Amino acid sequence: MSACADVDIVVPILNEAACVDELIDRLERACPGAHLIFVDNGSTDGTLERLRNRNVTTIQHERNEGYGKSLRDGIDAGTGRAIITIDADLEYPPESTTELLQALELSPVVYGSRFLRRRPAMSITRRLGNQLLTNLFNIVCRQNLTDLYTGVKAFRRDLVDGHPFRENGFVFVVEFAVRVARLCRIAEIPVNYRPRIRGVSKMRHFAEGFRAVAVLLRHA
What we know:
The protein is an alpha/beta fold and 220 residues long. 36% of the residues lie in helices and 16% in strands. Helix 5 packs parallel to helix 7 (205-219). It has helices spanning 20-30, 47-52, 67-77, 96-104, 124-141, 172-181, 205-219; strands at residues 7-13, 35-40, 57-60, 82-86, 109-113, 152-156, 187-190. The protein has a 7-stranded mixed β-sheet, sandwiched between helices. It has one domain (4-219): Spore Coat Polysaccharide Biosynthesis Protein SpsA, Chain A (Alpha-Beta Complex).
């Protein structure tokens, strides 16, 4: 499954004109021949125009329909046997796609963890919130993750085919994890993490934390 020609790389994107060209260049070098699928979630800063000038598949949402809806639409638009999802803000190195595909040879789903290599540069509030949600997920779903809310992961398409995901917002992350946890053990590899230096985060962490707990208990 290491051949990039049979890989879909799905990127939800919103107002990332400052880094989208660098992201595409690095993805193309890291995984030549992969099908790059960008789902623009109502950008107003020129991101969509930049995407249309590149050799990538672009799905346009007229308005912000949510992070989860973008991932769902991007996954549905592809046909590759392997799927990688990665955030567009360059916080996760595009080069990690190579390591994820290698790990996918042994496991049907692989998460890139920010916490396996060293303590990432993030606020104590974010780190503890992620840890709390990850630990709760592990208890409920009998997994052993360190980074539930990672922004880069890889999985085999047959793992999700035919499953009607419903969540549109960031809590899609929880719904997806609960779904695959019923089928297999989620593997992890360490990835480097660098907080964004351009653009603005779209996630409201405190509010999303409450939603995540509710969605976890509902879907599990």
